[in-house]
Amino acid sequence: MLRLSGITAGYGAGLILRGVDLSLPAGQVTCLIGPNGSGKSTTLKTISGLLRPQDGTVTFRGEDISRLSARERLLRGIVHVPQDRSLFPAMTVRENIEMGGFVLRDRRLVAQRWEEIAATFRLVAERADAHAGSLSGGEQKTVEIARTLMLDPALILLDEPSIGLDPKSRTAVFRNVAGLARSGRTVLLVEQNARSGLAVSDTGVVLEGGRVALTGTGADLLTDPEVGRLYLGAGTAVQDAVPAASAVSGD
Ligand SMILES: Nc1ncnc2c1ncn2[C@@H]1O[C@H](COP(=O)(O)OP(=O)(O)OP(=O)(O)O)[C@@H](O)[C@H]1O
């Protein structure tokens, strides 16, 4: 689905990514963990086109997209949900969701996708006319995730979706992540709550110093003593999360 090969990137003279190689299998959730400043968010930016790599290639469905703009990548189905809250607080939930389709020219398609999203996310249907700013942090994150579906994305990049949320909201967010994969999307998740992130992921990737240090199944990384010592100590309890999308069958 997506492959990063030898990605070198940074801000100005400062190099952050130092040759990142990463493959995302279609329809799976991959969780990127690692210390603060290791380049997790920077990796997402090189995929969505917010940052151009100095070297290396980003290949999406067999096409080299390294030189494409963020808008061109959006149109190919790559959607990025940043860490910071990104809803327009004075607009309604429905208006915010519809804004997710701003690159679409077809108003009928926007209306049809709105109906599909409202049918999938009960919160969106129930709070359609509420101002986004009146929702809790967890509810806003759910709306942000729901909004990605306006572009029927193939690849969804989620930057720390559970940060700052209470345990119940975190569980809801991770359930939504699993739901995205069940509906056929590919998800790359960056998570400080590494336990919960890995528990919901098919694959885990550890980024250290701008390079991939370790890759394994989410379950393997959860039980790796070294990963446990370095990254899982202060995480959220596993039972807060839901099982990896591929382990959830038939519902
Ligand atoms: N716009 C920017 N301009 C300059 N430096 C930046 C910018 N964004 C990030 N950095 C720096 O790049 C480094 C990597 O940041 P990045 O956000 O990718 O790390 P991260 O692994 O996501 O860490 P965190 O968990 O703290 O978010 C950090 O040292 C950060 O200060």
What does this molecule look like?
It is a single chain. The protein is an alpha/beta fold and 251 residues long. The protein has one domain (2-246): Rossmann fold (3-Layer(aba) Sandwich). Helices cover 35% and strands 24% of the residues. The protein contains ten helices and ten strands. It has helices spanning 40-48, 70-75, 93-99, 107-120, 122-126, 137-148, 167-182, 194-199, 218-223, 225-232; strands spanning 2-11, 14-24, 29-33, 55-60, 63-64, 78-81, 155-159, 186-190, 203-208, 211-217. The strands form two sheets. The chain has a six-stranded mixed sheet with strand order 6-7-8-3-9-10, with helices on both faces. A four-stranded antiparallel sheet has the order 2-1-4-5, covered by helices on one side. Helix 6 runs parallel beside helix 7. The longest helix has 16 residues, at 167-182. Residues 234-241 and 245-251 have low confidence and may be disordered. Bound molecules: adenosine-5'-triphosphate.
CATH names the topology as Rossmann fold
Radius of gyration: 17 Å
Unreliable spans: 234-241, 245-251
What is the CA–CA distance across the termini? 25 Å
Shape: globular
Family: Belongs to the ABC transporter superfamily.
Keywords: Amino-acid transport, ATP-binding, Nucleotide-binding, Transport
Pfam family, one: ABC_tran
Protein name: ABC transporter ATP-binding protein
Summarize this structure briefly:
The chain is of the alpha/beta class and 251 residues long.
